[in-house]
């Protein structure tokens, strides 16, 4: 069964600190992996899409890595800000293009 | 700015009273999706339209229906809402589905409360 698992489930950090979120997937065949940020009560917003051939991709303070061999991805947030408090969702499409969502990591950044 | 718009943002309905949620997009995308997201859960795809072609997920209850009168608008109709239908409903669009990874753009969601 195609699955996307994320860890940790929740994370609390202090403003200015870095953090790394993990995503493991079993979706096959693999075409791409997406990271979304979802603020409370809002729709998800795309941070990055990584295809099979990409190992690292940055979007401002967000850097995503992908290891297609081990089927793992990470999202690294540098110099966290209060506005980074949100759920971060890892998403991998099935071959039907239906998105398989992870359950997300809830990040809270405190001053 | 091009975007996905959902109205209303908050909807309260009574048990069994039909309700319609709306979504519009200015992106001119071919595909429109409706997701249901319950608290602390991942979004669950209900159905999608590829142009005028409707595609229902196998486990979507018959209570949920959808209409897409034109490229820009898509509606979610809940014929007889139950307490278990209280959730955030997300509309999303994408330019296409197959081939290159087409981004899905999500609207802000409609929070449905059933009393």
Describe this structure in words.
The complex is a heterodimer of chains A (111) and B (115). In chain A, the strands form 2 sheets. In chain A, strands 2, 4, 5, 9, 10 and 11 form a 6-stranded mixed sheet that branches. Chain A is 0% helix and 57% strand. Chain A is built from no helices and 11 strands. Chain A is globular. The model of chain A has no long low-confidence stretch (mean pLDDT 94). Chain A is mostly beta strands and 111 residues long. The relative contact order of chain B is 0.34. Chain B has no helices and 11 strands. Chain B has strands spanning 4-7, 10-13, 19-25, 31-37, 44-50, 53-56, 64-67, 73-78, 87-94, 105-106, 110-114. The mean pLDDT of chain B is 93. In chain B, strands 2, 4, 5, 6, 9, 10 and 11 form a 7-stranded mixed sheet that branches. A 4-stranded antiparallel sheet of chain B has the order 1-3-8-7, with no helix packed on it. In chain B, strand 5 and strand 6 form a beta hairpin. With 115 residues, chain B is mostly beta strands. Chain B is 0% helix and 50% strand. The chains are: A mainly beta (111), B mainly beta (115).
Question: From N to C, what is the helix and strand string of chain B?
Answer: EEEEEEEEEEE
Helix content of chain B: under 10%
Number of strands of chain B: 11
> What is the first-to-last residue Cα distance of chain B?
36 Å
What is the residue-averaged pLDDT of chain B? 93
How many individual β-strands of chain A? 11
Radius of gyration of chain B: 13 Å
Distance between the termini of chain A: 41 Å
Strand content of chain A: over 45%
Number of helices of chain B: 0
Q: Summarize the main sheet of chain B.
A: 7 strands, mixed
Q: H/E series of chain A, N to C?
A: EEEEEEEEEEE
Number of helices of chain A: 0
Describe the oligomeric state of these chains in a short phrase: heterodimer
